[in-house]
Amino acid sequence: MFGFLLRRLAVLIPTFIGVSIIAFAFIRLLPGDPVALLSGERVMSPERHAQISAQLGLDRPMVIQYLDYLGGVLQGNFGSSIVSKTPILKQFMALFPATVELSFCAILIAIAIGIPAGVIAAIKRGSAIDQSMMGIALVGYSMPIFWWGLLLIILFSGILQWTPVSGRISLMYFFKPVTGFMLIDSLLSGQKGAFASAVSHLILPSIVLATIPLAVIARQTRSAMLEVLSEDYIRTARAKGLSPFRVVSLHALRNAMIPVITTIGLQIGVMLAGAILTETIFSWPGIGKWMVDSVFRRDYPVIQGGLLLIAGIIMVVNLIVDVLYGLINPRIRH
Amino acid sequence: MADTTKAQPVSSAALRRQMLAEFWFYFSENRGAVIGLFVFIALVIVAVFAPFIAPHSPFEQYRDAVLVPPVWVEKGNASYLLGTDAVGRDILSRLIYGAQYSLFIGLFVTTLSLTGGILVGLIAGYYRGWVDTVIMRLMDIILAFPSLLLALVLVAILGPSLTNGMIAIALTLQPHFVRLTRAAVMAEKTRDYVTAARISGAGPFRLMFRTILPNCTAPLIVQATLSFSNAILDAAALGFLGMGAQPPAPEWGTMLAEAREFILRAWWVVTFPGLAILITVLAINLMGDGLRDALDPKMKRS
């Protein structure tokens, strides 16, 4: 197991270095003067230009600049935003819990509905239930989620007036963030109705973000279950006279879950891409919206740092999924 | 002279016809796939004949008919079947012209990422060694970024436009083709027919493109269909974020971006462009499922 972990890390490190080179090269690839881009000052005298260039270290050789950047990154220094002048890591840490909260609720919805739907479809294979469920799953899989979000806003916020259109909590409530997770903070604040407000803000974005992972998980669960259900040991279990429920839940589901867990892990990347659109539609103050806003503000250091942080998180999550997969399925360790 | 049993030469045309018939047999068994195919053909026809089908110009602004609802709603106007947008353009006509954009995006992006991916994948799988390691690490790096985020940032570098958006999306889709081609090449390379071809003197190019590649096509075709629908979705998402096709282009995602501020006043400006995206992507994905079943019995899901 230890060797397996080492091998995975051996692949991860060069990939991370590559990612950091891309993030570093990014500002140099932009048309225009990097000094102007990084300082945010448009017109400057040659003296000022040289001063800022020296201040930012841009007058040194490229390799030194990269190593310096990488060294800073490894110490948690990603530079500062041009617009707000605050450190990028600080901004990221403030916004990241919002994205985690949203993604966590979304993946919970996707798993809670996707796995039972896939199991039922597999058991009732070929029936009307199976066909309609898989039809819906394919529609979900094909969904332009930015449009789906707008439709839900029209229906639930516009016509029915059940949910708010945007944000994380009603402006009536104000409390200091403790954990950064609005659901927990609103409970801790003890203010009446704060938790309900947080839930009502969270529900539509979670549904939107859950849509594609839900469809993928349902399809994957169904095909994994179908494969397992045709195995000999399932027939043996049935022949022993075990109840169909026991056969499905105890014998089949456990083995069918192995590929499904990988699929769920892979959805993390999908979620972060989906968060870009979902957070933009619902004005959800997370890292997806932060990245889009930064692209529009041309806040290049933020784009650079955000790109590296997001890729780093995805790589770490994938590593964890890989290791978990190795734990539950010893066959792939070698 | 003694009678020798002559080997019956199988004409390649007959063989191809038989393969096609077999393919159609499996494909047509999947009802969804056939529906998807017909919808897709209809979309192609609409796109090609857009100037003859569209009742209005997609750019003409009818200032006296701003935000007219669809014909079946009260105050609807039979001249504008699906209503008009905020500056009085006919939504149906814009959707019809939008089909040109979406199909072109799908075709362009898929062709670009497919050819690039096959080329790089063939080289990696055929030569192995350090070439392979470098290529695969590069692909891992691309895959470490969420595709839409990478496309968004690339467009921010290159400047927002449809062409740059398509190039960025093609780049994010390409690693999948590289991985598939490489895996298939590695599996085929040690087979006897490849060895036979090499011994008879075939050079590396002939081996790669004429001998090995035709035997790796099935998974590539399935992946190409997936990429086609992904490209349309991602391009629409970029358009929606204001980083793809620029207004007044009747691209469906861009139309949605322009319609956003009217969502609570005029549902039709939001509903129809998104529905068009959904139907197109769904049709292609249905076809993809059918192709997978027909081309590769091993990958069959049910």
- Uncertain regions spanning at least 5 consecutive residues of chain A: none
Structural class of chain A: mainly alpha
Name the helix and strand elements of chain A from N-terminus to C-terminus, one letter apiece.
Answer: HHHHHHHHHHHHH
Number of strands of chain B: 0
User: Radius of gyration of chain B over alpha carbons?
Assistant: 24 Å
Largest interface: chains, residues each = A-B, 49 and 43 residues
Number of helices of chain B: 12
Integer tally of domains of chain B? 1
Name of the CATH first level of chain B? Mainly Alpha
Taking the sheet with the most strands of chain B, its summary is:
none
| End-to-end CA span of chain B | 56 Å
**Strand count, sense and closure of the main sheet of chain A?**
none
What fraction of the residues of chain B are assigned to beta strands by DSSP? under 5%
CATH architecture label of the domain at 96-328 in chain A? Orthogonal Bundle
Q: Would you tell me which CATH topology of the domain at 96-328 in chain A applies?
A: MetI-like fold
Please estimate the helix content of chain A.
Answer: over 70%
Count of individual helical segments of chain A: 13
Query: Average pLDDT of chain B, to the nearest integer?
Result: 87
For this structure, what is the CATH class of the domain at 96-328 in chain A? Mainly Alpha
Helix content of chain B: 55-70%
Give the topology, please.
The complex is a heterodimer of chains A (334) and B (302).
Chain A: H1 2-29, H2 34-39, H3 46-55, H4 62-74, H5 88-123, H6 128-141, H7 145-159, H8 182-189, H9 194-229, H10 232-239, H11 244-281, H12 287-297, H13 300-328
Helix pairs in contact in A: 1-13, 5-6, 5-9, 5-11, 6-9, 7-9, 7-11, 8-9, 9-11, 10-11, 11-12, 11-13, 12-13
Chain B: H1 12-29, H2 31-48, H3 50-53, H4 91-127, H5 129-144, H6 147-158, H7 162-189, H8 192-199, H9 204-212, H10 217-240, H11 252-259, H12 267-295
